[in-house]
């Protein structure tokens, strides 16, 4: 490690945000490559690396992904009532069409038995999430914004993007230049939720 690495890491950790507002400038290929390179160094149970990334830059395909999102959003809005529902209707929850790059991160079920998964096979999927987190931090360090869109049906992604049958999409990520400077989580800014202190106890 080098002097200043700790401080630099914490600047990136503190600056990371879930972005939904993007500019239209393209993402530099070299910067995109460095974001994708985070998957190379990401940890995974049993060194399984059970992920596959599909890069979506075609605007027509991103519109198809947005159609998927819009249908799910209608269903989710029905889960809320009263003032909560009105606030939900005002929220911007994605930047699928604005962000010039979409990343579909899929889980690839291993063919062989994976070391370390006897008592917790879900560690394979957790490994994919861990890799996404590193890519998120890499994007932040590049001055890019990344947003995870969870309101998407995986089957719809298969249909829209022609994904291989063995892939199980776990994340659709919007990547681009952020249009807003976020000093706190956006959902906190708009009054939907607030960060809570860490739930912690000790067993000394």
Automatic annotation (TrEMBL):
Keywords: Oxidoreductase. GO terms for molecular function: 5,6-dimethylbenzimidazole synthase activity. Coiled coil: none annotated. InterPro entries: BluB (IPR012825), Nitroreductase (IPR029479), Nitroreductase-like (IPR000415), Nitroreductase/BluB (IPR050627). Residues 14-177 form the Nitroreductase domain. Pfam families: Nitroreductase. SUPFAM superfamilies: FMN-dependent nitroreductase-like (SSF55469). It is an enzyme of class 1 (oxidoreductase). Its EC number is 1.13.11.79. This is 5,6-dimethylbenzimidazole synthase. The lineage of its organism: Bacteria, Thermotogati, Deinococcota, Deinococci, Deinococcales.
């Amino acid at each position: 490690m080098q002097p200043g690495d700790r401080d630099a890491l914490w600047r990136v950790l503190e600056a990371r945000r879930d972005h939904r507002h993007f500019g239209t400038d393209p993402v530099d290929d070299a910067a995109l490559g460095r974001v994708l390179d985070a998957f190379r160094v990401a940890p995974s149970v049993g060194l399984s690396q059970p992920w596959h990334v599909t890069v979506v830059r075609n605007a027509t395909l991103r519109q198809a992904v947005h159609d998927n999102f819009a249908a799910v959003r209608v269903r989710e809005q029905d889960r809320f009532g009263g003032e909560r529902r009105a606030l939900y209707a005002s929220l911007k929850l994605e930047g699928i069409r604005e962000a010039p790059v979409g990343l579909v991160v899929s889980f690839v079920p291993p063919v062989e038995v994976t070391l370390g998964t006897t008592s917790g096979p879900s560690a394979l999927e957790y490994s994919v999430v861990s890799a996404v987190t590193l890519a998120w931090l890499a994007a932040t360090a590049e001055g890019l914004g990344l947003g995870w869109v969870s309101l998407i049906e995986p089957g719809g992604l298969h249909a829209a993007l022609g994904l291989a049958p063995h892939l199980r999409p776990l994340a659709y990520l919007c990547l681009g230049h952020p249009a807003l400077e976020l000093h706190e989580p956006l959902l906190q800014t708009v009054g939907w939720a607030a960060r809570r202190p860490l739930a912690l106890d000790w067993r000394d």
